[in-house]
Amino acid sequence: MVSRVIPVDPFDLVIFGGTGDLARRKILPGLYRRFVAGQMPADSRIIGAARGELDDAGFQKMVAEAIAEFVPAERQDKAAIKAFLERVGYVSIDAKGTGGWDALKSRMRENVVRAFYFSVAPALFGDLAERLHAHGIADAWSRIVVEKPFGRDLASAKALNAVLAEHFDEHQIYRIDHYLGKETVQNLMAVRFANILFEPLWKAEYIDHVQITVAETVGVEGRGAYYDKSGAMRDMVQNHLMQLLCLIAMEPPYHFDPDAVRDEKLKVIRALDPVKPEDIVRGQYLPGGGQGGYVEHSEDPASRTESYIALKCHISNWRWKNTPFYLRTGKRLRARASEIAITFKEPPHSIFDDAQGWRENVLVIRLQPNEGMNLMMMIKEPGPGGMRLMQVPLDMSFADALGAEAEDIPDAYERLIMDVIRGNQTLFMRGDEVEAAWAWADPIIAGWEARGDRPQGYDPGSSGPEDALMLMHRDGRRWREIKG
């Protein structure tokens, strides 16, 4: 199997917040990898823009250090790094004032794609958008990339969308969610819509339930004060898990076209039922393992913000009526793992002895670690002695299937930035999607705030609060084990 690398058009990419953590960890190392892969044209330019007083050489030194730290040693090449750095520049900019904007304009070239990555706090989005136009830097073909959070409720999301819409059309705005850039997430669409095998079974008649899990082993130490203003519902469920749910549940679009795909995702969000209070479990991790608990890390002993949430939701449409979707995410859990598990119903009649322990078919899509898919199936246990059944996986790991080529698969940020340059919005959220997601999430948050609910404590290294287990047990189901 040979992967194809299709170069994009020449571009000028300006990274506002170019000296920040996201730029150092993900954006700049990812662009270097795309340059090495031959996808970034030699005459493209990357311009860092931030408050710091740096020159080109100083910023290039920072970029080189980021590559050294965040790109595996075997993927680093001195000649390639040197060539990449020659395409990197820097402008000191005042996002709320006039300083640096003329200098930035002088760096921009004609007849290339112009993209502007807002790797800054959302409070600065409006200022940057306004100044890009006021100084004649952005034109009708320019693109902006905005990082989450896209607001913290429906009202703020609408206000943010309105600010951006004052200066850019919707087709120019790329709201980035790195989960949608993962190879396995995109393969989910291929599995569903390019194979007759699954799509006829992809409905309530054959699927018992769906589990979506995003588990992390890290806590919120170092950014607790920031995280305490959002919590797991705002930070993860309303965006990352919602997008995964949409890809699982959406109807086939008429074409693999950005708006066609996003139209179908929007229908899913709007079909979500309100979530009942008894179908929500919230938790905070306790001290353990020589580390403090959530309340210590948040610096608020009275905090009621959740570091864990599990909930059951339903989609009121013909395809999914009465099929529950169970979502959970949390910090300081047993392992770092993200997966989607589609559990199929048992056969209507079994010809085998029930004592043989039939187990359900499950399609598991692993997002991290070790991206891939497996399908749990029942087969005959090898050997004599009659018909004994056992469950085995039909496993496809990208690392195993692609071998050395798996190392060349772009990570989420690499893929999404290249999609921005191509002008492909399929994997980016549209404004009405964001607002619909908040319209669903807001009443859930308002409900527990009105009730004064406190999150339940859970031990670090566990699978979460005990009540989360009961959320499944009362339905005669159980969570899949969290394992890396």
TrEMBL record:
<feature type="binding site">
    <location>
        <position position="235"/>
    </location>
    <ligand>
        <name>substrate</name>
    </ligand>
</feature>
<feature type="binding site">
    <location>
        <position position="216"/>
    </location>
    <ligand>
        <name>substrate</name>
    </ligand>
</feature>
<feature type="binding site">
    <location>
        <position position="331"/>
    </location>
    <ligand>
        <name>substrate</name>
    </ligand>
</feature>
<dbReference type="Pfam" id="PF02781">
    <property type="entry name" value="G6PD_C"/>
</dbReference>
<feature type="domain" description="Glucose-6-phosphate dehydrogenase C-terminal">
    <location>
        <begin position="189"/>
        <end position="480"/>
    </location>
</feature>
<comment type="similarity">
    <text>Belongs to the glucose-6-phosphate dehydrogenase family.</text>
</comment>
<keyword id="KW-0521">NADP</keyword>
<dbReference type="InterPro" id="IPR036291">
    <property type="entry name" value="NAD(P)-bd_dom_sf"/>
</dbReference>
<dbReference type="GO" id="GO:0005829">
    <property type="term" value="C:cytosol"/>
</dbReference>
<keyword id="KW-0119">Carbohydrate metabolism</keyword>
<dbReference type="Pfam" id="PF00479">
    <property type="entry name" value="G6PD_N"/>
</dbReference>
<feature type="binding site">
    <location>
        <position position="148"/>
    </location>
    <ligand>
        <name>NADP(+)</name>
    </ligand>
</feature>
<dbReference type="GO" id="GO:0009051">
    <property type="term" value="P:pentose-phosphate shunt, oxidative branch"/>
</dbReference>
<dbReference type="GO" id="GO:0004345">
    <property type="term" value="F:glucose-6-phosphate dehydrogenase activity"/>
</dbReference>
<feature type="active site" description="Proton acceptor">
    <location>
        <position position="240"/>
    </location>
</feature>
<feature type="domain" description="Glucose-6-phosphate dehydrogenase NAD-binding">
    <location>
        <begin position="14"/>
        <end position="187"/>
    </location>
</feature>
<feature type="binding site">
    <location>
        <position position="182"/>
    </location>
    <ligand>
        <name>substrate</name>
    </ligand>
</feature>
<dbReference type="InterPro" id="IPR022675">
    <property type="entry name" value="G6P_DH_C"/>
</dbReference>
<dbReference type="InterPro" id="IPR019796">
    <property type="entry name" value="G6P_DH_AS"/>
</dbReference>
<dbReference type="InterPro" id="IPR022674">
    <property type="entry name" value="G6P_DH_NAD-bd"/>
</dbReference>
<feature type="binding site">
    <location>
        <begin position="17"/>
        <end position="24"/>
    </location>
    <ligand>
        <name>NADP(+)</name>
    </ligand>
</feature>
<feature type="binding site">
    <location>
        <position position="178"/>
    </location>
    <ligand>
        <name>substrate</name>
    </ligand>
</feature>
<dbReference type="GO" id="GO:0006006">
    <property type="term" value="P:glucose metabolic process"/>
</dbReference>
<protein>
    <recommendedName>
        <fullName>Glucose-6-phosphate 1-dehydrogenase</fullName>
        <ecNumber>1.1.1.49</ecNumber>
    </recommendedName>
</protein>
<keyword id="KW-0560">Oxidoreductase</keyword>
<comment type="pathway">
    <text>Carbohydrate degradation; pentose phosphate pathway; D-ribulose 5-phosphate from D-glucose 6-phosphate (oxidative stage): step 1/3.</text>
</comment>
<dbReference type="GO" id="GO:0050661">
    <property type="term" value="F:NADP binding"/>
</dbReference>
<dbReference type="InterPro" id="IPR001282">
    <property type="entry name" value="G6P_DH"/>
</dbReference>
<feature type="binding site">
    <location>
        <position position="51"/>
    </location>
    <ligand>
        <name>NADP(+)</name>
    </ligand>
</feature>
<keyword id="KW-0313">Glucose metabolism</keyword>
<comment type="function">
    <text>Catalyzes the oxidation of glucose 6-phosphate to 6-phosphogluconolactone.</text>
</comment>
